[in-house]
């Protein structure tokens, strides 16, 4: 069996259904059609492939595979790999390398030391020194990627290895050293049981607890257990961005929506003070520091205790948070043990109806002659019953985090990790490929979108009909707002945040998509309602921000 056949067969056995990537000259050695059942999704640039793999790993919790050619193909993956590392996404990044007899780093054309580049941003990186290594290294990489905390791994394969025959002795089941799958499993030690008891006592004594739900809930798919726990104690909760959809914030009295570092300026309402000032116990469930919800968000008002309930032990996170109590283990198991069984120990209902009204109607005047992000999200909420909303990166993203009423898990996708401009379109591609029967919306700005707009053609090639709502102000607006915050108007260099005008409607049509422009919110709703769903549509809107720019934490 040749290395390429072994590689693809093993990936298929690991339930890999597709490989995102951009081909190179190594494709004379591997065509990716050597076996049936794995599709190669060709993107216009490696960044798109890398991010699509990252997002696919996050929303399926299964191993994803991304491939690139040598040299610039490999280096173009780095932002997506760093994103997967921060987002704890299980992705195998495969890269080709020059022929084994011509690997002279920084000397040979297109030859760089990929292992040294990827080591800091992966859980594991290796460059094969012999074809036979693939047998053990592929198995090892898979186990490392899927072991908590999950994350990206990398294997570099010299081009001449793909067509090499692997000797039978290397294909035996006993050839590779077995990685201990028992690592990290918890047993109910006396210390563990004592912590459970202490946690239950803290819950009983607390008058006004509140939960903050983090992204580990998504990785462990502990949505039902989390809701059951909160309801059993009658504890209100606020979520990080990607936990949106655990329940509807307008239908669930305990759901206070999602937090953002700009939320109080956007809402024109002291939401965080209302939630946290009187709270005496903060339960951080599945919390990750990369959720971008910092301790100063909840450290306000009265003195409070903090509990960290996580899947994995993390000394660095404990040092940052300094919790009064720390529990780690299976989230579904822990939450089932901690749920309340006594009706008389339920907490009194806390009335957050004023906050809910602000979230639903936003207490600022209706600017009839301007389109702002709140109005856009209000329209999109009408279509969110069984849809997925993806955002790119920009100030509007925080309006989406606050105002989108996602109703099911994994129905809101936004990168709180490395948060790269242009990540929205690759994420939407991943969402539509993995959930083809769901309607997928991408909300993006002109700056981020145009950095990857070549992949509009990818939507057409693979028949991925998504709805792109492009908010255009011909500017890097969030950077402009930060400039204004620190620099007097006459000293502000406004030119560096301005962007040239692009007719995105025509750009969409040139790539085979529908292209429309809307000059009012009612036009936006009409265009979405009339869309026939046969091919992607880009709807361009002029955008103005009408809220106050304020950093809440």
Write up this protein.
The chain has helices at 3-13, 46-60, 72-75, 78-86, 114-118, 133-146, 190-205, 216-220, 223-233, 263-267, 271-276, 315-321, 331-338, 353-361, 373-381, 395-403, 424-434, 446-450, 456-461, 477-486, 504-510, 521-530; strands at residues 18-22, 39-42, 64-68, 91-97, 124-127, 153-158, 209-213, 237-239, 255-258, 281-285, 305-310, 325-328, 387-391, 412-413, 439-445, 467-472, 514-517, 537-542. The protein is α/β, with parallel strands linked by helices and 553 residues long. The chain folds into 3 domains: 3-171, Rossmann fold (3-Layer(aba) Sandwich), CATH 3.40.50; 190-354, TPP-binding domain (Rossmann fold, 3-Layer(aba) Sandwich); 365-542, Thiamin diphosphate (ThDP)-binding fold, Pyr/PP domains (Rossmann fold). The protein has a 6-stranded parallel beta sheet, with helices on both faces. Strands 9-8-7-10-11-12 form a 6-stranded parallel beta sheet. Strand 17, helix 22 (521-530) and strand 18 (537-542) form a beta-alpha-beta unit. Helix 2 (46-60) runs parallel beside helix 4 and helix 15 (373-381) runs parallel beside helix 16 (395-403). The radius of gyration is 25 Å and the shape is globular.
According to CATH, the homologous superfamily of the largest domain is: Thiamin diphosphate (ThDP)-binding fold, Pyr/PP domains
Unreliable runs:
178-186
- Count of extended strands: 18
Category from helices, strands and their pairing: alpha/beta
Strand order of the largest sheet: 2-1-3-4-6-5
The rough form would be described as globular
* CA-atom Rg in angstroms: 25 Å
The chain-level mean pLDDT equals: 94
Q: How helix-rich are the residues, as a percent range?
A: 25-40%
Give a quick account of the main beta sheet: strands, pairing sense, barrel closure.
Answer: 6 strands, parallel
Share in β-strands: 15-25%
Q: What distance lies between the first and last C-alpha atoms, to the nearest angstrom? A: 57 Å
Instruction: Tell me the number of structural domains.
Output: 3
Looking at the overall shape, the CATH architecture of the largest domain is 3-Layer(aba) Sandwich
How many helices? The count is 22
What's the level 1 CATH class of the largest domain?
Alpha Beta
């Amino acid at each position: 069996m040749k290395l390429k056949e072994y590689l693809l067969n093993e990936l298929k056995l690991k339930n890999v259904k597709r490989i995102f990537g951009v081909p190179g000259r190594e494709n004379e050695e591997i065509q990716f059609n050597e076996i049936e059942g794995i599709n190669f999704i060709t993107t216009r640039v490696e960044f798109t492939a890398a991010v699509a793999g990252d997002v696919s790993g996050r929303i399926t919790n299964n191993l994803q595979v991304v491939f690139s050619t040598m040299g610039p193909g490999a280096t173009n993956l780095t932002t997506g790999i760093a994103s997967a590392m921060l987002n704890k996404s299980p992705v195998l990044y495969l890269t080709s390398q020059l022929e084994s007899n011509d690997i002279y780093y920084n000397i040979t054309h297109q030859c760089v030391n990929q292992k040294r580049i990827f080591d800091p941003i992966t859980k594991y990186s290796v460059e094969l020194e012999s074809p036979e290594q693939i047998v053990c290294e592929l198995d090892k990489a898979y186990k490392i990627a899927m072991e908590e905390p999950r994350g990206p791994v990398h294997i570099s394969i010299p081009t001449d290895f793909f067509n090499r025959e692997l000797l039978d002795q290397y294909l035996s089941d006993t050839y590779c050293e077995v990685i201990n799958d028992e690592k990290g499993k918890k047993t109910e030690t006396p210390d563990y049981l004592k912590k459970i008891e202490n946690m239950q006592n803290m819950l009983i004594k607390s008058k006004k607890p509140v939960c903050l739900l983090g992204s580990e809930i998504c990785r462990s798919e502990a949505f039902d257990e989390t809701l059951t726990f909160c309801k059993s104690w009658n504890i209100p909760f606020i979520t990080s961005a990607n936990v949106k959809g655990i329940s509807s914030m307008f239908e669930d009295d305990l759901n206070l929506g999602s937090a953002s570092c700009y939320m109080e300026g956007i809402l024109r309402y002291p939401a965080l003070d209302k939630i946290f000032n009187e709270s005496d116990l903060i339960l951080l469930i599945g919390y990750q520091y990369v959720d971008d919800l910092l301790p100063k968000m909840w450290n306000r008002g009265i003195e409070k205790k903090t509990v960290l309930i996580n899947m994995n032990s993390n000394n660095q996170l404990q040092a940052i948070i300094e919790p009064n109590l720390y529990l780690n283990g299976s989230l579904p198991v822990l939450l089932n043990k901690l749920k309340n069984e006594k009706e008389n120990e339920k907490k009194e209902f806390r009335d957050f109806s004023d906050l809910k009204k602000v979230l639903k109607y936003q207490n600022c005047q209706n600017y009839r002659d301007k389109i702002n992000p709140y109005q856009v999200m209000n329209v999109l909420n009408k279509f969110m019953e069984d849809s997925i909303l993806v955002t790119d990166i920009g100030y509007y993203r925080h309006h989406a985090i606050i105002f989108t009423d996602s109703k099911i898990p994994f129905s809101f996708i936004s990168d709180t990790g490395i948060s790269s401009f242009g990540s929205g379109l690759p994420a939407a591609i991943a969402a539509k490929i993995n959930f083809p029967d769901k309607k997928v919306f991408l909300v993006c700005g002109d700056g981020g979108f145009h950095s990857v707009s070549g992949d509009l053609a990818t939507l057409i090639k693979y028949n991925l009909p998504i709805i792109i709502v492009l908010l255009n102000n011909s500017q890097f607006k969030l950077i402009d707002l930060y400039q204004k915050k620190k620099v007097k108007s006459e000293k502000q260099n406004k030119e560096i945040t301005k962007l040239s005008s692009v007719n995105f409607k025509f750009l969409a049509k040139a790539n085979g998509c529908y292209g429309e422009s809307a000059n009012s919110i009612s036009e936006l709703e009409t265009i979405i309602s009339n869309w026939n769903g046969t091919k992607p549509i880009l709807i361009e809107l002029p955008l103005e921000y009408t809220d106050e720019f304020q950093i809440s934490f």
